[in-house]
Specification:
Helices cover about 30% and strands about 20% of the residues. The chain is an alpha/beta fold. The strands form 5 sheets. Strands 1, 2, 9, 10, 11, 12 and 20 form a 7-stranded mixed sheet that branches. The two termini are about 40 Å apart.
């Protein structure tokens, strides 16, 4: 059954009494960026109107505001952030990341790296624990990735396979050497060609080629699935060495992932921008074949003298203006748009923080854990996706519990966990069947997860908040079909920053380089918009920044 954006606005209303009441910022009401009581009169003049307040929209808005523009941001939900928000959805004092958690990508963005937008002055602070990812198995084996500590990480591998520990150390040095080369130089070296060929394989085939131990193959494939694409697909070969990637660390904001968008919101309001929440956009205003503003579901209209910036998913966006205005090229792109596997996120408040047993004795805590018993289980995801079935016995699971190190996220002495991964959105009974089965599915995964811990039992679970794939879409319609990254990134099927309708721009996960918390689509869109306004980003930030 086809489901429209308006259906989701209506459906979410039934979810709203609970969810909206719980979606309070990790900060006090005065700093929640929910703009309580703030209004903007239809006659108020804005240079740019931005539809959506995901992190890329806010990044784009920050650059536009820094350039001296009057910016209005309209967010359909009670809380800004899109996929980057933190809320007390469990119990008071338990701050859970509703979608994203790790911020390793955005810390390489010149916005933060070169302090182009001074978010640290507005409350954005990251923690980067030495224990990055722990990977336990039910038979007692385990691996631990320690940040920038090759020897210590390899030592955990050696307990399972000395050969794989030696391979890990040797190939890591080779990979670092190749990554430091230019693309042209890589093609001229044996090592460069090796890594190029590894990347072209499926993660499963590459892992089978590289690692002796099935445990090591499964560990890298499960930790490689954090990006949402299964390692059974061609071109995912680098997932076979995901533990090497995680050696660089997976920093997370203190106080929750949403502190990024809270800081962006604070920066915007300090720079004469206006943020309005609970304002879902329903229609683009087109005058003389140019986009001059938007109309919200409640009938209110807002105009941007210089342009409108959208982060609405293209599948929903094209229904907001006459179809003939979009042009064949974009319509053809949108028609073949494929969602990635849908995400689920099951949240639990705990009487204590998770601990994992070690084969050497004792226990360990970590920011994240990764679970999958057998490497071949990675194939089950595509099979279930095609059939609309659930065979969840050994799905790859990402377990997120930064409160182990960030005690600001939970009350003293308590813990919290988010179990997430991907499952089919389109069940054979229909996507709404999730409403009937998510409690059972969540209980099954929780039971399975607890078996990997040293200290947790069901009686230590204090509360739960469950987001199935259809709930993910209800929470954020731009996560079309539960796809948190907006598309299958490997296909390179991106919307342009300049849309075919003059005056309309696009940002967010549907534009290059795609989803994840990088802020690059937001910064890239700002560069294009500023260029059309006769400015350069270099002029706006007051220096010549390095490229993203």
């Amino acid at each position: 059954m086809a489901i429209t954006r308006r259906d989701f606005v209506r459906t979410t209303a039934s979810l709203a009494p609970f969810v909206a009441s719980q979606l309070t910022s990790a900060q006090s009401p005065a700093t929640a960026i929910q703009a309580p009581g703030r209004t903007a009169a239809p006659a108020e003049r804005f240079d740019y109107v931005i539809a959506g307040a995901g992190h890329n929209s806010l990044v784009c808005a920050a650059y536009l505001a820094k350039a001296g523009n009057r910016v209005l941001v309209l967010e359909g939900r009670p809380l800004i952030g899109g996929g980057v928000k933190t809320a007390e959805v469990l119990l008071p004092g338990f701050k859970q990341d509703l979608c994203s958690s790790a911020h390793n990508g955005i810390n390489q963005n010149p916005m933060l790296r070169d302090n182009e937008i001074p978010l640290r002055e507005y409350g954005y602070e990251v923690i980067d624990p030495d224990v990055v990812v722990h990977i336990p198995f039910l038979d007692g084996a385990s691996f631990t990735v320690f940040r920038r500590d090759v020897a210590r990480t390899a030592e955990t591998i050696a307990r399972v396979s000395k050969k794989d520990a030696e391979t890990f150390t040797r190939l890591l040095a080779s990979r670092q050497k190749v990554l430091a080369m230019s693309a042209g130089d890589r093609a001229k070296t044996r090592e460069g060609v090796f890594w190029e060929r590894i990347g072209a394989l499926s993660g499963f085939d590459a892992a089978k080629q590289i690692w002796e131990s099935p445990h090591m193959r499964a560990a890298n494939l499960s930790a490689g699935h954090f990006g949402g694409v299964p390692g059974s697909d061609s071109g995912t070969g680098n997932q076979a060495v995901s533990m090497m990637t995680h050696l660089n660390g997976r920093p997370m904001p203190k106080g929750g992932s949403g502190m990024l968008t809270v800081a962006l919101g604070r920066y915007l309001e300090a720079n004469n921008a206006v943020i309005l929440t609970s304002k879902p956009v329903a229609r683009l205003i087109i005058e003389n074949n140019r986009c001059t503003g938007v109309e919200c579901v409640d009938g209110s209209q807002y105009r941007g003298q210089k342009g409108v910036v959208s982060t609405i998913h293209p599948k929903n966006l094209i229904g907001m203006a006459p179809r003939e205005l979009w042009g064949d090229a974009l319509l053809d792109t949108v028609d073949i748009w494929q969602p990635e596997h849908a995400m689920f996120a099951f949240h639990f408040a705990l009487a204590e923080s998770p601990k994992y047993p070690l084969s050497t004795g004792g226990t360990i805590g970590s920011c994240e854990a990764s679970i999958m018993q057998r490497p071949e289980s990675i194939f089950q995801l595509n099979t279930d996706q095609a059939r609309g079935e659930l065979n969840i016995e050994d799905y790859p699971l990402q377990i997120v519990h930064p409160s182990v190190f960030d005690t600001t996220r939970v009350p003293p002495g308590y813990g919290a966990v988010k179990i997430e991964g991907t499952m089919p959105y389109g069940l054979k009974e229909g996507p709404h069947h999730w409403d009937a089965i998510k409690e059972r599915v969540a209980d099954q995964l929780l039971t399975y997860y607890l078996r990997h811990t040293a200290n947790l039992t069901k009686d230590k679970v204090l509360a739960k908040f469950l987001l199935s794939p259809i709930d993910i879409e209800r929470m954020n319609p731009s996560m079309w079909r539960g796809s948190v990254h907006h598309s299958v990134r490997e296909l390179g099927n991106f919307a342009p920053y300049r849309m075919p309708i003059p005056g309309l721009y696009q940002t967010g996960g549907s534009t290059a380089p795609g989803g994840s918390v990088t802020g690059q689509p937001g910064r890239n869109a700002a560069m294009v918009i500023l260029q059309d306004d006769g400015k350069t980003l270099e002029q706006v930030v007051g220096k010549a920044p390095r490229s993203a």
